[in-house]
Design brief:
seven-stranded mixed beta sheet; 275 residues; Metallo-beta-lactamase, Chain A; alpha/beta
Length: 275
């Protein structure tokens, strides 16, 4: 029986960090800004920081997460909806920024950073007990990456801002407990919507964004019995709705009990704890 839930859920916080392996909070997701908080209770990181520093701080505090306890920011690619707040948070909280060389070179607006740590796509690195593996994705950026983040055998996989899911991407998304998956647009809404034709073509291209249908097909292939949560991310405000994305992708969940959610642009999600 499928266990799916629309938009929001309640998740009670364990009393001690030892009660869970990983915790995740979607601080923002969409074309106006993206940021994801991940922690094992001892080490806390942000994957991207695409809102202002003030807004990200507000959303962390709203979920009882402490900005001063962040340990690092990790950047997927240079687009402003993923990097707007990186520089200010790095300077304000003295955070190292993990970023690959090509992305850093393409990000002059970051300004000065407290510390820069370079990573290579395909090479696992560690921040304390968190194991982080960057893998290449297909998007119109210099060197865009997705990530798997693991601890004690529990893995979160992040795949947004990609036009296609290559065999390499699929391999990295297998076996995760929680999957953050792009469902950017409804093909019909994009086709009949107000965007100019060149932009529509870019979105649909191999270096654009996954549609709801593409995400459904991908999830049909990736689902497994240990998959606990799927979060649909980076929805277009113009060419999609949470309900349309949810209803389309939910059709894929026929062989597992994963819960399905839709991340929001304007509010942070409750924290999900993975045990």
């Amino acid at each position: 029986m499928k266990r799916i839930k629309y938009m929001d859920h309640n998740s009670q916080k364990p009393r001690e960090s030892g009660d869970y392996n990983l915790a995740i909070c979607m601080l923002a997701s969409g074309s106006k800004g993206n940021a994801t908080y991940i922690s094992d209770g001892d080490t806390s990181i942000l994957i991207d920081a695409g809102l202002s520093g003030v807004e990200l701080q507000r959303r962390l505090i709203y979920r009882d997460l402490v900005p001063e306890q962040l340990d690092a920011i990790i950047v997927t690619h240079e687009h402003s909806d993923h990097t707007q707040g990186v520089g200010v948070l790095s300077r304000r909280y003295k955070l190292p920024v993990y970023i690959n060389q090509k992305t850093h070179q393409a990000s002059p607006r970051l300004g000065s950073l407290h510390e820069t740590k370079s990573f290579e796509c395909g090479q696992t690195f560690h921040i304390s007990n968190l194991s982080i593996h960057p893998f290449s994705i297909s998007h119109d950026a210099e060197d865009p990456v997705g990530f798997t983040i693991g601890r004690n055998g529990t893995t979160i996989a992040i795949a947004t801002d990609l036009g296609i899911a290559t065999s390499l991407v699929k391999e990295h998304l297998k076996h995760c407990a929680l999957l953050i998956l792009e469902a950017n647009h409804d093909p019909q809404m994009l086709e009949t919507g107000p965007y100019p034709w060149p932009l529509k073509q870019r979105i649909k291209s191999r270096t654009g964004h996954l549609s709801n249908t593409s995400s459904k097909i991908l999830l049909e292939e990736l689902q497994h019995e240990n998959l606990q949560h799927v979060i649909l991310a980076h929805l277009s405000e113009t060419n999609n709705t949470p309900r349309i994305a949810f209803d389309e992708v939910a059709k894929a969940l026929t062989r597992c009990n994963a819960r399905l959610y839709v991340a929001d642009q304007d509010t942070s999600s409750p924290v999900i704890y993975l045990r």
